[in-house]
Design brief:
The structure holds 2 protein chains of 2 kinds.
Chain A (H helix, E strand, L loop, with lengths): L7 E5 L2 E5 L11 E3 L1 H11 L4 H11 L4 H17 L5
Antiparallel strand pairs in A: 1-2, 2-3
Helix pairs in contact in A: 2-3
Chain B lengths: L2 E5 L2 E5 L3 H7 L12 E3 L3 H7 L5 H17 L4 E3 L2 E6 L2 E6 L6 H12 L3 E5 L4 E5 L2 E5 L14 E12 L4 E4 L2 H9 L8 H17 L2 E6 L3 H11 L3 H5 L1
Parallel strand pairs in B: 2-3, 6-10, 10-12
Antiparallel strand pairs in B: 1-2, 4-8, 5-6, 5-7, 8-9, 9-10, 11-12
Classes of the chains: A alpha+beta, B alpha+beta.
């Protein structure tokens, strides 16, 4: 699983903002993430698979494997809906 | 022919033609040894992408995009807005085209008479210099070419939308970031997109941002001015 290339992530006035760059993505798009979202996003950028994301979540946050899995599923579904996955 | 200009406090070299050259005329300066920026144009490409554009429009859009992208190297950017000056402070009104930015600043001109003028009616440069934000008139100033070659301290930014009643309130968070972001010049490269976010971060932290819902009556200008000129605080007690 991979994010499309060319996203730029930065905190803007307290919000975590992701915008696309380059020639292929919709440059009008702006996404905001919460803390968990950023946590998962940066790992996805590094090429993590779903199972690794679940593991990372359970290690970083006090959350059961089942909840973590649900969370990752929802997150990935949202990325997919918005056409952010390669 | 290459000409020298002083735009947004920078020495700019530009070889342009037609409308862009005419509008840039009042920004022209004598050639100097040091140049901050060379503006390049690819108006043919812009024109090809937008079949409705003629050469003049292509050149205008292309030079604007190039100038404002490079401006990011100098802590500056473009905010698509009609920017009015009253009593020495600049107030930017930003919104999608057709919302009524110029109509609103027109009400300010009526209301404040000689105390007010338009600095740039469409694409002012906003620049952060020694930690202070300023608005500049530039040659890229919209349909009617209303711009003044001046630097004015930035008093605030209002995101404008139409409403029956006039209300204004401080604007922050994701909605404010989104509303301003879509009215900025947005270069394509990751490097410049990151610079844009860095500068947007500072802008929103350092400059008052307002959400203005307004109609087209003179009261709209009074309501906006009362809050944005900081006199609103007195009214609220």
């Amino acid at each position: 699983m991979k994010l499309k290339e060319g996203f730029v992530l930065r905190e803007v006035a307290g919000d975590i903002v992701v915008i696309p760059s380059g020639d292929t993505l919709d440059l009008n798009m702006m996404i905001t993430l919460n803390e968990t979202g950023r946590f998962l996003w940066t790992r996805l950028e590094a090429g993590a698979e779903k199972q690794e994301l679940v593991q990372a979540l359970t290690q970083e946050y006090e959350v059961s494997a089942q909840d973590a899995e649900q969370h990752v599923e929802n997150f990935v579904a949202k990325l997919n809906e918005n056409g952010l996955l390669a | 022919m290459e000409r020298y200009y002083k735009i947004a406090g920078l020495t700019v070299v530009m070889d342009t033609f037609g409308v862009t050259q005419e509008r840039a005329e009042k920004y022209q300066c004598v050639p100097t040894d040091t140049v901050d920026m060379r503006v390049t144009s690819n108006w043919e490409t812009v024109k090809d992408k937008h079949p409705g554009y003629d050469a003049n429009t292509g050149e205008y859009m292309s030079t604007a995009a190039n100038f404002y992208r490079q401006l990011l190297d100098f802590e500056g950017m473009m905010l698509h807005s009609s920017t009015v000056v009253v009593d020495g402070f600049a107030y930017c009104f930003t919104a999608d085209s057709g919302t009524g930015k110029s109509t609103h600043t027109g009400l300010w001109l009526q209301e404040f008479g000689e105390r007010a003028y338009i600095l740039n009616d469409d694409k002012p440069a906003l620049r952060r210099e020694d930690g202070v934000w300023y608005a500049y008139g530039t040659p890229w100033s919209g349909k009617h070419d209303i711009s003044v070659d001046e630097r004015v301290p930035l008093g605030g930014i209002a995101c404008l939308s139409r409403a029956a009643e006039n209300t204004i309130r401080p604007f922050s968070g994701t909605a404010a970031i989104g509303a301003i972001f879509k009215q900025l010049n947005r270069p394509r490269s990751p490097e410049y997109r990151m610079k844009l976010l860095e500068l947007l971060d500072k802008l929103i932290r350092e400059v008052p941002v307002w959400q203005l819902c307004c109609n087209m009556e003179p009261e709209a200008a009074r309501v906006a001015y009362a809050a944005m000129s900081n006199k609103g605080k007195d009214l609220e007690g």
